[in-house]
Amino acid sequence: MKKLVLFLLLCPLFLRAQPLRVAVAANAQFVMEELKTAFQKKTGVTVETIVSSSGKLTTQIQQGAPYDVFLSADMTYPQTLHKAGLTTAAPVVYAYGSLVLWTMGELPVSANLNVLSDPSVRHIAIANPATAPYGEAAIGFLKAKKLLVAVQAKIVYGESISQVNQYILSGAAEVGFTAKSVVLDPTLAKRGHWVDLPQTGYAPIAQGVVVLKRTSQPKAAEQFLVFLRSPDARRILQKFGYQLKP
Amino acid sequence: MPIDWEPIWLTLRLASITTLLLLLIGVPLASWLALSQFRLKPVVESIISLPLVLPPSVVGFYLLLAFSPTSGFGAWLLHHLNLQLVFSFEGLVVASLLYSLPFMVHPIQAGLENLPVSWREAAYTLGQSPSRTLWRVLLPNCKPALLTGIVLTFAHTIGEFGLVLMIGGNLPGQTRVASIAIYDEVELLHFQTAHAYAALLLALSFAILLLVYFVNKRVTV
To answer: What is the pTM of this model?
Structure first.
């Protein structure tokens, strides 16, 4: 009896094929859900995602985290991994991202960022520029607008775009800089309102993907990279506000 | 890499303020729990003990929602007291009070419960009021328990991480405590700096615990 119970408990281990583990920068977590579904439909390969800031994922990969593919929010982090000999090839751009200013309240958000000086704005959420490329872009944008010094005291840092979204959605921060792909997610599209930020203050955010050398599933990982360039995947990326050209 | 001492001082400040305030809250609370015959006492005890078993992320999540200016409580605080508890040092203090409460209350309560009942009864028959009995007879006789409560509260607050990560916003001098600073330095691959902070905290925590174990051979939590 005991043996049977043990066998039944271990059954799932034998029956489940090893999923493809994709580490995803927080800005792409929502688009990844749709990409995942489409990819699974196409190839039958199950995908597991791990969401965090690009910097954190890079550190984890350097410390031997068992991921197969890494979708970063920039080119620098995957480049670092490539230089360290941890990837199968140099990073390829899978999409170009852009910033939006997002609020839950009735604040008049506009591309000139005037709202940031409004006294009712006590906190501006930005991803940690040291580890999240979207945070770096947001700081760059504020600098270009000559606003950084004026609003510095209001800035609070999320550890990734995910936490910035938590701060904005919970109302803890009145406004915040997030990725366009976040506010275009169907479940979030109706929440609050947002405005596109012109890419004059910051370069379009080129996002790179790499396959990690330690992958246990090189074939499935390659399939996923090919899939990212397919018309299906491109349609999904565009739907979430990513551009395919700089 | 120069060491930025600010996160360390911030952690020590947070731990000191939390310990002091919890001493003021914890002593009356523990005394009441130890001496009262209230029928719903287990309910109160369970609530106080919750931070021992709940993941910090649960407490952090609820506090983020509660402290947010858009919630009823957060709006009330902002409006009436001009107090903003999310992304602020004050918020970390309030969170730590909740989170370290059992570490102060349990040892003191246990200490009081372990005193012979006859002492209390003797004081009463000699005409002393309950509060005077508590201050003059009972509390002076459970100094080790008080010290344990103080030290454990202090140490536990130093070790806080998940909660601060969720409601702090990583502001230097405000909410970037040592545990968060370590996390950041590791992320940035500044292992040297992370080592320095980590070693400091390790030494500090060890020294504190050693003190407790020396003072009373057994820690009752």
So the answer is: 0.82
Residue A2 confidence (pLDDT): 64
pLDDT, residue B137, reads: 87
| Phi, psi angle pair for A14, to nearest 5° | -80, -35
Q: What is the pLDDT of residues B85-95, one digit of tens each?
A: 999 999 999 99
In this model, does residue B67 exceed pLDDT 80? yes
**Assigned token pair, A241:** 């506000």
Q: What average pLDDT does range B132-141 have in this prediction?
A: 88
> Of A60, A120, A123, which to mutate for an interface test with B (greatest number of B Cβ within 10 Å)?
A123
Question: Cβ contact (<8 Å) for B70 and A130?
Answer: no
Nearest to A133 by CA among A43, A44, A233, A52: A52
- B70 vs A59, A158, A171: nearest CB: A171
Q: CA of B204, closest CA in chain A: separation in Å?
A: 27
Structure tokens at A185: 């997610």
CB B59: neighbour CB atoms within 10 A? 19
Helices (H), ranges, chain A:
2-15, 29-43, 54-62, 76-83, 133-144, 148-151, 161-169, 180-183, 218-228, 231-239
Q: Which of A55, A131, A157 sits opposite B169 (nearest CB)?
A: A157
Residue A172 has its nearest CB partner, among B64, B170, B188, at B64
The alpha-helical segments, DSSP class H, found in B36-161 are 41-53, 56-67, 72-76, 89-113, 117-125, 130-133, 143-158
Identify residues of A whose CB sits under 8 angstroms from chain B CBs: 53, 55-56, 59, 62, 104-105, 122-123, 125, 128, 130-131, 156-159, 166-167, 170-174
The reply to whether residue A128 touches residue B170, judged by beta carbons under 8 angstroms, is yes
pLDDT recorded at residue A189? 83
Q: Which residue of B has its CA nearest to A125?
A: B169
Alpha helices (H) along B40-88: 41-53, 56-67, 72-76
| Residue A85 Ramachandran class (φ > 0 left, ψ -120 to 50 alpha, else beta) | left
pLDDT tens-digit profile of A42-75? 999 999 999 988 988 998 899 888 999 999 999 9
When CB atoms are compared, the residue of A131, A167, A170 closest to B187 is A131
